[in-house]
Design brief:
heterodimer, A: 381 residues, alpha+beta, 2 domains, 6-stranded mixed β-barrel, 12 helices, elongated, B: 233 residues, Rossmann fold, 6-stranded mixed beta sheet, 10 strands, 24% strand, transmembrane helix (chain A), ABC-4/HrtB_transporter (chain A)
């Protein structure tokens, strides 16, 4: 401690440069983490907020985009509802649609068709729930896109007109697009391709011969485990838990993998930078270390001293970097950039930066134990 | 190679340094050099012995063996009555801290520490409370006015004075000095070696000084010469 602190002060320019690099890495870590959380929210917050335990897709559906590929029918939902541990099973239809409001504003919507009285009915933050075939409840974030309660959205190409009657409670987006909940019957009417322009009536949506949906949403009874394999073979489906189903939403795995790869590289860079610095630092101090060992300083003392040095510089520069990153992130949160600061991933990034930096430093500092104290004497012996 | 002990009665002395019949070969195969060839040397407490000789004669090996840095192939080394051959590596390091002071070429101070801190570090490393007060010792070597100066703010002679104070701070029984005047001009060399002699006599330390500098030998109580690993004279 005695020597470590004084060396930090003595070589503050060198340590400061290395600390600056670590701090910049920490800033990037926070920004990436925020971007990552923001993209995840933007991609799957609509799924996250659902009270479903799992989603059953039709057997053989490719999992990377199952929400739009899968086609399931009522029989499969009924089979699932009878499975042990399943409290409820409900059909849900998903579709991506473009629409235009009365004043010409273009909106992108992810249509989620649900039975309004099923467990899938969204929590309403403002306005009211869907009651009639021509009503939709949209994500609260759709307000930013120009959708107000009472607006009539005309779906492109098919010209079906739907009226916004409420906002969900909190952000609910899917594949970076705002959700619009609508009755399953209306969803089937729209998806069937047999719709007529104008406001859908109950008679019109009931008359369409189209009984399928995209997925069966499952809700487990309290504390019960669902036997997915048994249910899948009975119903002819393949089931993903809620968290697994994120991968089935558009672009999700591609986005998260890209960001994760950048983060992994940053961790590696951090360990390398710190390791390289302490390698050079130890080599620069070789003669001094030889003197210390010659006069009798134990290897353990010198190793502890070196690691302490690394720990101090890493903790200080990481915390400075994280705080700077949080400051910058706070500025980004209100913008159009999908950005969300979450404590857990930032804490993980902080700990990993420090731990991996220490690993890098430790690998370099081990050199101390190989310094020959005889180097301190003359040269020849 | 002979391992016979040449001193008359090595067992009766306790303090100081006693090397008996030490042999040390360096390198291997064709390149083997007999760095120490049946070396016997005893230095009493309060005595300052100079070791002179050409480069490669084994002077540094003598210091390494006396300083518990190298274990001789054969022969014994006793410092203050302790046979270094009986100590483990960790015990030798601890022994060096408390019993052996080193003065290196050009001081070899720690760049990050000021003069007082150089001495404090030695006290901390040794973990003992019976060392000298750093400021008093710096005053004894005439460096108390530079106690807050780091090595880069000191002249060569000043660095060597701090180095001498550092070597004494844990009250060693043996002082090993390696070419203390190598980086100093003539006047400063005289000052530094005179200081070493004074401290040796005042504090009752056994001192071995390796040097090339024949102008400083008159400060020493005894001069021995090394040639090809053997002590002569």
């Amino acid at each position: 401690m005695f020597l470590a602190l004084r060396e930090l002060r003595f070589a503050r320019a060198r340590f400061g440069l290395m600390g600056g690099v670590v701090a910049l890495i920490a800033v990037l870590m926070v920004l990436l983490s925020g971007l990552s959380s923001g993209l995840v929210n933007d991609g799957v917050s609509g799924l996250k907020s659902m009270p479903a335990t799992a989603f059953a897709f039709n057997e053989g559906t490719k999992t990377d985009n199952a929400f739009s590929r899968s086609v399931v029918d009522e029989g499969q939902a009924d089979t699932w509802a009878e499975q042990p541990g399943v409290e409820d099973a409900a059909l849900m239809g998903t579709a991506m649609m473009n629409g235009t409001t009365g004043n010409g504003t273009q909106v992108d919507l992810a249509l989620f068709g649900i039975e309004p009285d099923s467990f899938l009915a969204p929590e309403i933050g403002e306005g009211r729930g869907i009651e009639a075939p021509d009503e939709i409840v949209v994500s609260s974030t759709a307000a930013d896109a120009g959708l107000a309660i009472g607006d009539v959205v005309t779906l492109e190409r098919i010209d079906v007109e739907l009226t916004v009657v409420g906002y969900t409670d909190g952000q609910a987006t899917f594949g970076h697009v705002d959700l619009a909940y609508l009755p399953l019957d209306t969803w089937q009417y729209v998806a069937s391709g047999q719709s007529s322009p104008g406001t859908p009536t109950q008679a019109a949506v009931s008359s369409v011969d189209f009984d399928t949906a995209s997925t069966v949403a499952l809700k487990a009874a309290d504390g019960a485990d669902i036997d997915f394999a048994a249910g899948d073979s009975a119903a002819g489906t393949v089931t993903s838990t809620l968290a697994e189903s994120f991968d089935a939403s558009p672009g999700y795995s591609a986005e998260t993998m890209t960001l994760e790869m950048i983060q992994v590289f940053l961790y590696a860079i951090c360990a390398l930078v710190v390791g390289a610095f302490f390698t050079v630092w130890t080599i620069q101090r070789r003669h001094e270390l030889a003197v210390l060992r010659a006069v009798g300083a134990s290897t353990g003392y010198l190793l502890r001293d070196g690691l302490l040095q690394a720990a101090i510089i890493l903790v200080v520069s990481t915390v400075v970097g994280i705080l700077a990153g949080l400051g910058m992130g706070a500025g980004l949160s209100g913008t159009a950039m999908p950005f969300a600061l979450e404590a857990a991933p930032i804490a993980t990034a902080t700990v990993l930066t420090i731990v991996l930096g220490l690993v890098g430093a430790a690998l370099a500092i081990v050199r101390i134990s190989r310094v020959d104290p005889l180097v301190a004497l003359g040269g020849q012996r | 190679m002979s391992t016979e002990t040449q001193t008359s009665n090595p067992g009766t002395r306790t303090g100081g340094l006693l090397i008996s019949g030490a042999n040390l070969a360096l390198g291997d195969g064709e390149a083997t050099v007999q760095a120490l060839d049946n070396v016997t040397l005893s230095v009493s407490p309060g005595e300052m012995v100079a070791v002179v000789g050409p480069s490669g004669a084994g002077k540094s090996s003598l210091l390494a063996v006396a300083g518990a840095l190298t274990t001789p192939d054969s022969g014994t080394v006793k410092v203050n009555g302790v046979d270094l051959g009986t100590l483990s590596k960790a015990e030798r390091a601890k022994f060096r801290l408390k019993e052996i002071g080193f003065v290196f070429q050009s001081g070899n101070l720690i760049p990050a520490l000021n003069a007082a801190e150089q001495l404090k570090l030695m006290l901390k490393l040794a973990g003992s409370r019976d060392g000298f007060d750093p400021l008093e010792l710096l005053a004894a070597v005439g460096m108390d006015h530079k106690a807050k100066s780091r090595p880069d703010q000191l002249s060569g002679g000043e660095r060597q004075r701090v180095g001498i104070a550092r070597s004494l701070v844990n009250r060693p029984s043996l002082l090993l000095v390696d070419e203390p005047t190598a980086a100093l001009d003539r006047a400063r060399s005289q000052d530094v070696v005179a200081l070493l002699a004074r401290e040796t006599h005042e504090r009752g330390v056994a001192t071995v000084m390796v040097t090339h500098d024949h102008d400083v030998l008159h400060h020493c109580d005894r001069v021995v010469e090394m040639v090809d690993g053997r002590l002569v004279g």
